[in-house]
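Example with several molecule types.
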Amino acid sequence: MIGESIRPLDWAEKTAGTARYAADEPPAGTLVARVLRSPLPHADIKRLDVSAALRVPGVHAVVTAADFPEGRVYEHSGGPYSDRPPMAVDRVLYVGHEVAAVAAETAEAADEAIRAIRVRYRRRKAVLTVPDALAPGAPQLHQRADGANVAVATAEHWGDVDLAQANAAFQAGGTFRYPRVNHACMEPNTTIAWWHDERLEMWTSSQAPHFVVHELANLFGLELDQVVCRDVAVGGGFGSKSKISEHEALAAALSMKCGRPVLLELSRAEEFAFTKPRHAFTTQLAAHADTEGRLCFLDAVIDVDNGAYNHYGPSVMRAGIKQLGSMYRPDAVRWDARLVDTNLVPGGQFRGYGQPQTAIGLETLMDELAEQCGQDPIDFRISNSGLPDTTQLSGSQVGSNRLRECLAEVRDRIGWDAKRGPERRPYRGVGVSSGMHASGSYAYPGGNTSAAGIEVRTTGEVVVRFGGADAGTGQRTILGQIAADVLGVPMDRVGVIMADWDETPPDMGAWSSRGTHMGGHAVRQSAEAMAARLCELGAEKLGTDDVTLRDGCVVSGADRIPIENLVDGALRIDTEYVEPKMQPYWTGIERPNISATYAYAAHAVEVEVDPGTGVISVLGYAAVHDIGKAINPALVEGQIIGGAVQGLGAALGEKLHYEGGRLVNAGYVHYPLPRATTVPSIDVGLVEGPEPAGPFNAKSVGEIALIPAAPALLNAVYDATGIRFRELPLTPDVVLAALRERDGVTPRRHHLARRPGRWQIGLFRALYPYGIHLLLDRWGTRFARRPAPRPVERVALPATVAEAVAELATPDATVIGGGTDVLVQRDQELLFPTVLVGTGAIASMRGIEEKPGGDWRIGAAVTLAELATWASERVPMVASAIATIASAQIREVATVAGNLGQEKRCWFFRNGFDCYKRGGVTCPCYAVDGDHRLHHAAIGGHRCQAVTPSDLATVFDALGAEVVLTGPSGSRSVSITSLYAGPGELDLRTGELVEAIVLPASALAARGVFVKLQQWDGDFALVSLAASVTVGDDGRWTGARYVFGGLAPKPWQPPRLTRALAGAVPTADAVAGVLDQDLSWEAHPLPGNRWKLDAAIGLARQATEQLLLGRTRDEESDD
Amino acid sequence: MPDRPSSGRNAAGAPLEGRAVGGRPRVQAEHLRVDGDVVPAGAPGASLLEVLRGAGIFAAKQACGRGECGACTVLVGDRAVMSCTMPAAVVTDEVTTAAGLGDDAADLRAAFADHAAFQCGFCTPGQVVRAAAVLRESVDRSRDEIAREMSGNICRCTGYRQIVDAVCAVAESRQAAR
Ligand code: FES
Ligand code: FES
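Resulting structure tokens for the full complex:
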């Protein structure tokens, strides 16, 4: 059983969707909760009046800080570190800080109640970055012993620093930045709390009910047995749910106030913005090696952005430091580290726990030292690897350590030697990184302890009882396998009850990669006790001591007794496991050995960098892990692959962007998570061998796999480009700008002095940082228009265009195609139509037909999937563009008109900022001073910097399509460019709708290509290009149209290029040259999006080459 | 000859000659058919997902509510769609969730189990429904195509390899069984 990839115990429910997550099957009468959060990063609450909320029909409870016992704070890290009250008391410390919460019969009533709460804030100066927080005179968030806004400062060393420095012959160093990233668990944080019979019953999405129970009991002054969590499926944790997640107490308080069950489910936007992300680290690291190429000294200055409260920041920082003394064998490590308070949402626990943040520095510098020493990076790591059965500088008493085997195997799996050899392709590279992690840690009292119960029932079932929760790690299955193995019963007779403390002995839960080690030992121990008891009972009955357990029976020779016949009622044995090898942090041991075993890994990655666009493609990835023993290899592989991919996500794109303390990218569409097509098929190797301290030799795997991914990628990108990047993530803008700098390209000049048309905008932009932004943001937004939420009253499904036009005469009627943007805009509070006019039943809008003369008329309600099918042979460019839009599911229902008419995707506009377009003329465009690298215009931006998101607009413009608009006074035809009044804004007259698109016959005869720079398949274009041309027999181009998306507010055609291409026989270089002039004279980029112009040239080269290749192919087939 | 698209695509991606659509104003139905049951249609403007979960059908999950992740994927007729952004009012065909796929998806679910193609399981019903639609459309697909077809379904746990492994394995076994 141990070592077999048996199916997860919960497979049937999980694959059918019948597993019960916290929000599923709520008890009858469950109320819906909503939270009022601070809109400001730092302010005093001058007045908080909830009386109007209580009067909203359907509202049952409202809570504020006043509803909690005075002075009560979360325990969190404990002692002097405990600093967070359950809700904001008189002052808010970050955007999102919980000010009030309501519970009501319906979500609508709860929303209305939230809007009815009156709060008056007095703004305080906020510190939003670590340097701001440390500046003299900065406002202080808390009283801290270690200095102003310094939650913890530690400056210490391990080993003999003088000796280590004396040995140093080679030195490498740099400043490394790891940003805030979000766990993005698929299940948002969800809790149902129900106070009844003097008890708090909780269905909550947690990895560790232990902490939920203890924290709630502490906050509300309850006995521990007055709080109980139930066993629910948990939709991902990755550390975020390994302690309390701070929304549970709100649901509990509401329920305690009204006695009804209360469901609090965070929205995805809340999940991104207000759950605790990975702590951002800035690590200045220097690494030294001696003449032999032995790492001898590491010297670090680390600043950790704590956010507004401590939580587990102190131990996250400690873990990040500890890794410097654990991975290799330096003679000394010295650090000077600070955990710094800022007015941002507090940081939290995230898989890897501080170590990914310092690993990017350590592993980059290992490569740099290897290069200086003239050694291969893998060899260098092998010779510096820690050794088995040693105590490391950090105090870790390591038993097994097979890092060297891992490194050797990863070399083969990735094909290291060939890929770094003389045959290598340009812009391809491979990189490697090591990683390590403990298996559990004695970070808190009780951390060395676990417990499990085993029960044998008269049905023959074996039930494992365990107090931790399985958020997707497979622990449920692993524990079942261990019990089945020890007791010799088949797996289908084993059940595992987890996380329900009425049913299970206590365990601290799943964190610090302790699940298999601590839980595994506890279950093993209880199962062994049970086995001994069953054997005893069996021996008595069989009359011999020579018995074993097999196939659910006690067996002696040919005699056997089923175990169910040995139990009377049910037999249950609970035992507590105390790990003897662990040492605690707090008892004065200078360098405690906090864990019993240590796992190691080596990852290698191959990348290709596109020098034209800066896009990094991950071509191959191998991960080899020193696992001790894989109890369930398929599950172990899953942990490794999943962890590596999360690490790649952080390396390539994930980052939480803030503007004025507020999250900008609070949605999947603006947060580039890895997708099935953006990551390669990860190849996993498992190195097994004895580890006496582990259960069945097993070591941990949950967290370690994330750690080496980003450093391996950084090293691979260096190998491909010769550029050392020291900050994550490596988005295309960063890479392309660095490539240009490497090549010594002088920045493009835009001749603004000679372009009077841009003077006004130029001046406005220049003044933004000098008061305009502040003025508009502080004062202008007070006049922002905010549409009042209204329900949809009616959905009309007319059968003819005329009927549809008549419906549109109703004020606040909106056309919907697939509805894929209108419902989203409702959710984003941009639009509250009262009548939705569906076009799906209008036959004339649902067809594609040829008109006399060879033009084609495409009905506006044709779906993208349908259009792609029609176009695949006739106008392949259209089909290939559609393949890059959203997802297959969206393409099934999204319509042509819906795609053309979708609103801009600017992340400020979409994510609730009162910007110029959302709020009106008195409001700022947040992109001018904010993060505008990816989604904003580099050409022709005015007060709004957004772009038209529709790819079809770009393609149709290149094809010279016309759009048929029909309204009360008949139909008219317009070009794509005149279809738009602004970015993603159709220039429609009252009552008009888009009825059809007409593709000219010439479009079908032309050769076309669509290329798009996007962060994943389905992303909106950062830059795109649709090019269409008719090629004559002599190779001359006529009617060439190059149209760019993502560059300008509307699809943009470079004028000089269009002229130059007429009648020409172009080359990619020639196109790039003319386009460069166009970009010089037409563009007016923002400081952060100049790179888009270079990317546009990269795309133009690609497209031109493909168009020319098309010619060659045609000619060949003509022969 | 006029070319009218139908609501499905054929396997080869060839142009479709299909039925005409529409003609009569449709009235919003009072009920939806879901997994063989009938459920009330809900408020005008409600999304299909709201209607499903409101009716106690929890096999479709909400992870974003904005059509961006695939957790809410269900079949409407034979098309896999995001139920969170689909107005329930425009749904006329039978709706199928992961729980209603029945025997058709038994091999697929088993493959997800055997390949450890899920961890937390929250994305899984959506993945299974999407995979079912992909394989119904065609089993003659390369690994890359399958990954592309599945790429609208985010999974934060698995890193995707085992999901794609599972779907490929079913495609192969169904090919072999043909
Ligand atoms: S919940 Fe529907 S796509 Fe995310
Ligand atoms: S299994 Fe957890 S999100 Fe896919």
